[in-house]
Amino acid sequence: MGKxxxxxxxxxxxxxxxxxxxxxVSPTGTMWPVPDVLGVLADVGRRDVSPCVGQWNGYAxxxxxxTQHPDGHLREDDGPPSxxxxxxxxxxxxxxxxxxxxxxxxxxxxxxxxxxxxRVVLASARPPRSxxxxxxxxxxxxxxxxxxxxxxxxxxxQRHVFHEPLAPExxxxxxxxxxxxxxxxxxSLEILDKWYTDHVDEKLPTETSxxxxxxxxxxxxxxxxxxxxxxxxxxxxxxMNKITPKVRSKFAGRIAxxxxxxxxxxxxxxxxxxxxxLERVARHYGVKRESVMAIGDAPNDIGMIKWAGFGVAMxxxxxxxxxxxxxxxxxxxxxxVAYALDRFVA
Length: 346
Prior knowledge:
By secondary structure, the chain is α/β, with parallel strands linked by helices. It has helices spanning 2-22, 38-41, 104-115, 128-138, 168-181, 237-250, 274-284, 302-307, 319-324, 336-344, and strands at 24-25, 31-32, 86-89, 119-122, 143-146, 151-154, 159-163, 186-191, 194-197, 216-217, 230-234, 256-258, 264-268, 292-296, 310-314, 327-329. It has two domains: 2-42 and 165-268, Hypothetical Protein, Haloacid Dehalogenase-like Hydrolase, Chain: A, domain 2; 51-164 and 272-344, Rossmann fold (3-Layer(aba) Sandwich), CATH 3.40.50.
């Protein structure tokens, strides 16, 4: 075992030395040596960084009987099959309003259920750094689901407890296909909680890029040498309409894709889904599936909405997410999460 670890560290040291010699470009355009990445690379590629969550065992989508009012809201006599002990909440389009803020009413509702002993878990496509302020403001101490489930992060413990990355060879292939269609496609690589790219287009933002600058800007070849947590392809919607079906067909079985914005295609490991990660988190906390409520709005939320004992979609949700849910609550701009917590969590 010691020889294996020594060999792995030697390989990382060679990569580090190579990156230093290659140099990367800072967001300001000046050249800088790539910082020491050994600490980051030490965990890259390890599926279970900590054994505390257990092993993934998959899930099967569940057919739901929908009994709703004509206005789309759940009937008064319907509700969760068991008392809710864990609530998973998506961020953009769900917990956050369109202006990316939380109302005081929503914050109070979250804190109320926490005070009652209910676990609240944030489940987002965002990386940990982009969730940090929201997590702290709500006073959470639970695991969080990041990158659509490719990473489970323990913020209080400052550690990653689960990681399911893509193989570098697959990532290289997807990039080649996308840039054959349009060489201007923006490629963003997330490795654990770091962002790597070769260029940024301010006309094609993500929620993370609105707040954070890339950690490294430089040739992609410098970065696609270790497992990648999440690959994002960004282009105008009309270009993504050409890229998305091509990537999905050519790499079927080797990748999973997630969509939350029409100009972004998120590419992750085929086993990654918010549902898989939520199942692991619930098992860690000793909460059964029927006592889990999941709230979301987008296609990347469908898995957890179906897996949870009680799935909830926002009134602003995509049609596919609405059809997967047991309940439709007011939109993210009308305190829909607060409505769901006040109504369905005792």
